[in-house]
Amino acid sequence: MSKKIIELVNIKRDFQVGIETVHALRDISFTITEGEFVTIMGTSGSGKSTLLNTLGCLDTPTSGEYLLDGIPVKTMSKSERAVLRNRKIGFVFQSYNLLPKTTAIENVELPLMYNASVSASERKQRAIQALEDVGLGDRLQHKSNQMSGGQMQRVAIARALVNNPAVILADEATGNLDTRTSFEILVLFQKLHAEGRTIIFVTHNPEIAQYTSRNIVLRDGRVKEDTVNNKIYSAAETLAGLPLPEEL
Q1: What is the pTM of this model?
Q2: Among 6, 13, 97, 16, which Cα is nearest to 56's?
Q3: Are 50 and 4 in contact (CB under 8 A)?
Q4: Nearest in space to 99 (alpha carbons), one of 59, 49, 144
Q5: Longest alpha-carbon distance in the chain
Q6: Contact by Cβ (8 Å): 21, 15
Q7: pLDDT score of 246
Q8: Is 243 helix (H, G, I), strand (E, B) or coil?
Q9: Tens digits of per-residue pLDDT, 153-209?
C-alpha cells in the first residue's frame, strides 16, 4: 500500500472580513499518496490559494486535520511549521522567487542554509547535483539576471529538490512562460514524477491536467471533482510537435 504524503480530513478555513465570515474552505478531505502527480484547479474565489497555503504550512485551518508525511500540522507552533516546511516541501512559484545577482548554485543552496547538519561543502555538492538534474550543469555560475525565464524556473525547481522533500508544491509554475518553455518545464515535472516524486501542481490552466495523474477541482471552497487520469499525455511529444521559434 502506498505511503500517504498528504492527508486532509474535514478541513475548514474561515476568515473574518468586517462583520462577515468568509468560508474559504468547506470540509475539504482528500489523500495524496507517494508518487502521485496531482493538479489542483479552480477559478478565482474557489479556495485554491487558501488550500495552497494550508498544504504549504503557511496557514493553519480553522478546523479539521492536516497530516504532512504522517505529521499532524495543526497543533504546531509557527516555528515548528517553518522547520517542517523547509524539510518536507519543495516550493516552485510562478515568479521564481530567486535572489537577484546571485548565482544558480547560491540560489539552490538556500534551503540547506537552515539545516545545521549539512556542511558547506555538502551544501554546494547537493546544489550542483540538483542543477545538473534539471539540465543546468552548464549554468552553475550564471546569475538570475543572466538567465531566461525557463532557466530561472529550472533553478527554482532545483532549489525545490535540493532538500529531497516529501512533496513538490508548484504554484502556477508555468504561468509566466511562453507555450514552448511551459512544455519544457512540464517535461521536467513528468521526468521527476517518473522518478517517483510526489508533485502537486496548482493551476488555473485546464490543459495541464492532461499531463498529470490526477485532477482535483475546487469550487466555492469545496472539492467539486477528484478524478484519476487514465490517459496521461506526454509533454515531450507535445513539445516535439510545437514549431521552433524561427518557424513562428
Answers
A1: 0.92
A2: 6
A3: no
A4: 144
A5: 57
A6: yes
A7: 61
A8: coil
A9: 999 999 999 999 999 999 988 888 888 889 999 999 999 999 999 999 999 888 999
What one-character DSSP code corresponds to residue 232? P
Q: Which residues of the chain register pLDDT less than 70?
A: 245-248
Q: Where are the domains of the chain?
A: 34-64+77-247
Q: Say if residues 220 and 26 touch (Cβ distance below 8 Å).
A: yes
Residue the block writes with cell 490543459: 207
65: exposed, middle or buried (C-beta count within 10 Å: 0-12, 13-18, 19+)? middle
Distances (CA, A) of 96 to 120, 137, 144: 24, 19, 10
CA distance 247 to 91: 34
Model confidence pLDDT, tens digit, residues 74-87: 889 999 999 899 88
Long-range contacts of 68-72 (CB under 8 A, 24+ apart): 68/5, 68/6, 68/166, 68/167, 69/5, 69/166, 69/167, 70/4
For residue 82, give the 3-state DSSP assignment. Answer: helix
The grid coordinates listed for 161 are 529538490
Look up cell 482528500; give the residue. 30
3-state secondary structure of 222: strand
Query: How is residue 104 annotated by DSSP?
Result: H
Burial of 222 (0-12, 13-18, 19+ CB in 10 A): middle
Q: Which CATH superfamily is domain 34-64+77-247 in?
A: P-loop containing nucleotide triphosphate hydrolases (3.40.50.300)
Alpha helices in 4-119 (DSSP H): 48-55, 78-88, 104-109
Dist. CA 165–CA 69, nearest whole Å: 10
Residue 215 vs residues 9, 79, 231: alpha-carbon distances, Å: 18, 32, 12
User: The C-alpha cell of 214 is what?
Assistant: 490526477
Length of the chain counted residue by residue = 248
CA distance 177 to 170: 14
